[in-house]
Write a structure and sequence with these properties.
alpha+beta, 3 helices
Length: 158
């Protein structure tokens, strides 16, 4: 049975941090949200309702500042098993709930603008958008099994 990966509190892949564990090189995660509303332009027009909740919106990256704050909260929640709410966007009109990874507005009732947040560690080469969680899980498992950063891997290549 295949489980859908949610990067939640019990995520073993989420334990990747800036410190090297078992010789695994550190990585820099990217943070994305999927919403029809841009969080950096509070005066943008509200898109009409699509009539279907299953409409997929392309992921939009958070700013470097917001991404750093989210990563710090993510790693802090991993160590302390707590929760955090991080304000994001230029005007700080939205908040991301960590580790639930949901973004909602702060000052108004969410109608069409509760968005999923993704912590990406694997990306498509041509678009640099995050790979879907089930595929990212497989990539991460293979990466950890093959250990391409190790001297053994260099021996296989020579």
């Amino acid at each position: 049975m295949s489980r859908i990966h949610t990067y939640g509190p019990s995520c073993r892949l989420g334990q990747i941090s800036t410190t090297s564990e078992d010789g695994i090189p550190s990585l820099r995660a990217g943070w994305f949200y999927t919403s029809p509303l841009p969080i950096d332009d509070p005066l943008s027009a509200i898109p009409p309702p699509s009539g279907s909740e299953s409409v997929k919106h392309p992921p939009h990256p958070f700013s470097l500042y917001d991404g750093s704050a989210l990563e710090e909260a993510w790693l802090g929640c991993k160590e302390q098993e707590g929760t955090a709410e991080i304000p994001v966007g230029i005007s700080r009109l939205h908040v991301v709930q960590v580790p639930k990874l949901l973004m909602s507005p702060i000052y108004w009732s969410p109608v069409h603008d509760i968005a999923a947040v993704t912590r990406g560690t694997w990306f498509y080469k041509d678009t640099m958008l995050p790979v879907e969680p089930p595929v990212a899980n497989q990539l991460e498992t293979g990466y950890r099994e093959l250990r391409p950063w190790s001297q053994t891997w260099y021996g296989y290549l020579s």
